[in-house]
Amino acid sequence: MNVNMKKNRGLVYLILVAIVIGLLGYTTIVGFGSGKVGAAKNIKLGLDLEGGVSITYETVEKNPSATDMSDTIYKLQQRVDQYSTEATVNQEGDNRITIEIPGVTDANAILEELGNPGTLYFVREKGSDGTANYQADSTAEGGYALTKTIDELQKDGSLLLSGTDVSSAAAKAQTDSTTQNKQYVVSLSFTDDGTKKFADATTAAYAASESIAIYYDGKLISVPSVNAAITDGQAIIESSNMTYEEAEALASQIRIGGLNLELNELRSNVVGAQLGQAAISTSIKAGAIGLAIVCLFMIWVYLLPGLAASLALIIYTGLILLSLNAFDLTLTLPGIAGIILGIGMAVDANVIIFARVREELTAGKAVKTALKAGFHKALSAILDGNITTLIAAVVLYMLGTGSVKGFAITLGMGILISMFTALFVTRVIIYSMYAVGIRSTKVYGRPKPVREPINFLGKKKLFFGISIAVILAGFIVMGVNEANGNKMLNYSLEFEGGTSTNVTFNENYTIEEAESKIVPVIEEATGVKSVQVQPVQDSNAIIFKTTAIDNDQRTAFDEAMVSNFDIDSSKITYDNISSTVSSEMRSDAVLAVVVATICMLIYIFFRFKDIRFAGSAVIALVHDVLVVLAFYAVARVTVGNTFIACMLTLVGYSINATIVIFDRIREELGEKKRSEDLELIVNRSITRTLTRSVYTTFTTFVMVAVLYIMGVTSIREFALPLMVGFICGGYSSVCITGALWYVMKTKIGKKK
Asked: Do 722 and 598 contact (CB within 8 A), yes or no?
């Protein structure tokens, strides 16, 4: 009876798994209801995949300083991150700023919400002559209106503070001291200079029983009373009936009005995808083919457990797509990188489990015992590897901006879902299969004879030499490139800036047509390469972004457009553009990676109780990054926005691969016999995890390789370094990390 109950329960679980897969498939392909809720086609795509809104501002000040421009760009980037983690802000020329926000199609709505940046003032209630500077007005938005112009208030000294004196503004909840009810307020913090100004202003206003109005973008947005002199630079704007939405809107207006420069809108339009529809369709097909190859490989290698892992992987993919919909996340190329890494880690977890199961079967254990031992022994490696990478994802999200944050979101989400599918879904499927009567040892893995340890440490000098030679070669090539007048790396527009050319054609060209018909003409006429194409939606205009071109090249560009496409040369406009990856964004990315590395190091030390594990893991990580950097230099692969995503993917992959080796070394040390040599233990640990290292490298490589084979040029420039990085990560985990730890252990141990 007990056996029948288990069999029935297993059958129920398998039916439930089939239903879940069916529902996930239906949801992602079709969706539910009239809005097709959950369908993959409803996932928000980034500007590179779908297009969005592009807004260009011009500073009111004619010659703004580089510091003010840089600070304004940085603050705007933080502001527009609320619309999408993939929104970008970059400088055009000396006094223009362009904002590109993916996944939105209403430029007017964005403009209305952003308002006119940099026009915030705190206004005294009465002027020096005693007349009111503002008064109640039922027809005005907010109930108050100015009685004087801004120029008059400026001359009179009635503008007490400007937006630059505010360091932060945020909506928050607090308890009303009188009614004890919950109320929403706006919390303000001022700069050092603003604190002094606000202290003087509130002291005078409190003594005279006056209010202080906040002026923004042509209207008074708040007129709070002054209940005390505020000298600590911290203020609260409160109202008995303010909702959270109203508090957040007010705080948002104060933040955007606190920019260093005042900006005027120059133009706005809805732009098409930078990569085109072909990139999306080929990426989807490549993903499906790659996933199918991985599933077939897992089934071929691990038989029934491989089938269970494949079903879990299908569920993982469905949950990822569903989560992107549910949390309204924006998907771009860096986000796809995070998903690919998540798939790799999901496969890796299953490989670790089934490799352990195979070891137990080889040792003569029964199937059920082998399954139980396999899941148990694999748990620590899976948890340590995933948690270490998850720590990196959290830090990157907290400290990163733009594409870094987008990568961190999809990576973190992928890790959590992969852990769930590997440790729960795969277990349920495999135990259910066993319960319904599939118990033959033959279908749970082909037992292999115990392999004699390979002497990896005996070749450590060779491995170290190869790595050092490759890294040095990369630096030498970068030096030669710089000496020959080229940049060390082939920086793209995102890093270097260039020229943006807007051309209005007589007919509408798709991005694929523009790349095949127009781009070759531009390259031949100007001599520039790597032309980026961005169509303007609902028009015949196309924006071409290139490296900086001089007047002669612009003349050649005009002549080529007129002679080849018979267009009006007056409909060609040029703008100089700065790098979209600003210095602040780069420093944020570097800071995020450094902090993430430190946090991972601390976790590894905490878990392994040996700083040498952490130290060698970080050295191996740096090794992988430098090798891929050398590849960028030698192959002259374009260094653009995807460069950051590629390096971040490599960091996550490298750490995860290293943890698996270290987990086995730790286990072997715990079982070490007194007479056993440390070198033998390390070699045995690497040998016993070799299958895992090869299989995981293969499966992640396949996912990206199919993307490279089927993708358009931009996709290939993204996939190629990733392929090199995955191979390098597999090499370093097998040949470098264990040897590094052994050297550090024996050298430091001797001194100790």
From this structure: no
- Phi then psi for residue 456, to 5 deg, are -65, -40
Three-state SS string across 188-226, please?
Answer: EEECHHHHHHHHHHHHHHHHCCCEEEEEECCEEEECCEC
- Please, is 55 exposed, middle or buried when counting C-beta atoms within 10 Å of its C-beta (0-12, 13-18, 19+)? buried
CA distance 335 to 383: 23
Nearest to 554 by CA among 501, 496, 609: 501
Task: Kindly list the distances between the CA atom of residue 27 and the CA atoms of 23, 33, 81, 310, 409, in Å, as whole numbers in the listed order.
Answer: 6, 10, 29, 19, 22
The arrangement of strands across the sheet holding 234-238 comes to 166-175, 182-190, 234-238
Rg of the chain taking only CA atoms, in angstroms: 30
pLDDT(34) > 70: no
- Strand partners for 100: 54, 88
Q: Where in the chain is the domain with CATH 3.30.70.100?
A: 498-577
- Give the fold, CATH level 3, of 2-27+282-444: Multidrug efflux transporter AcrB transmembrane fold (1.20.1640)
- Between 404 and 118, the more confident residue is 404
Q: Are 673 and 748 in contact (CB under 8 A)?
A: no
What is 458-475+586-751's CATH superfamily? Multidrug efflux transporter AcrB transmembrane domain (1.20.1640.10)
- CB atoms under 10 Å from CB of 618, counted, come to 19
> What would the CATH number be for the domain defined by 120-258?
3.30.1360.200
Q: How far is CA 180 from the centre of its chain?
A: 42
DSSP 433-461: HHHTT---GGGG----PPPPPP-SGGGHH
Helix axes 460-483, 611-635, angle to 10 degrees: 40
Whether residue 750 is predicted with pLDDT greater than 60 in this model: the reply is no
Q: Which regions of the chain carry the CATH code 3.30.1360.200?
A: 120-258
Q: For 4-17, b where at least 16 C-beta lie within 10 A, e where not — what string?
A: eebeeebeebbeeb
The confidence score (pLDDT) of residue 751 equals: 44
Query: 3-class DSSP state for residue 708?
Result: helix
Q: Nearest 5°: CA angle at 488, between 486 and 494?
A: 90
- 596 CB burial (10 A radius; 0-12, 13-18, 19+): buried
pLDDT the model gives residue 511 = 74
Give the span between the Cα atoms of 497 and 98, in whole angstroms.
12
Model confidence pLDDT, tens digit, residues 522-581: 888 888 877 878 777 667 888 888 877 888 888 888 888 988 888 887 888 887 766 655
Q: What is the mean pLDDT of residues 63-84?
A: 76
Instruction: Count the Cβ atoms, other than its own, within 10 Å of residue 199.
Output: 16
Q: Which CATH architecture has domain 498-577?
A: 2-Layer Sandwich (3.30)
Q: Amino acid letter at 426?
A: T
The CATH 3.30.70.3400 domain(s) of the chain lie at: 44-116+268-272
Reported as type and span, the H/E element at residue 543 is strand 541-546
CB crowding 477-502: b at 16 or more within 10 Å, else e? bbeebeeeeeebbbbbbbbbbbbbbb
Instruction: Please state the φ and ψ torsions of residue 269, each to the nearest 5 degrees.
Output: -155, 170
State the CATH architecture for 44-116+268-272: 2-Layer Sandwich (3.30)
Compute the distance between CA of residue 565 and CA of residue 9 in angstroms, rounded to an integer.
70
Question: What does each C-alpha distance from 274 to 24, 286, 745 come to in angstroms?
Answer: 30, 19, 51
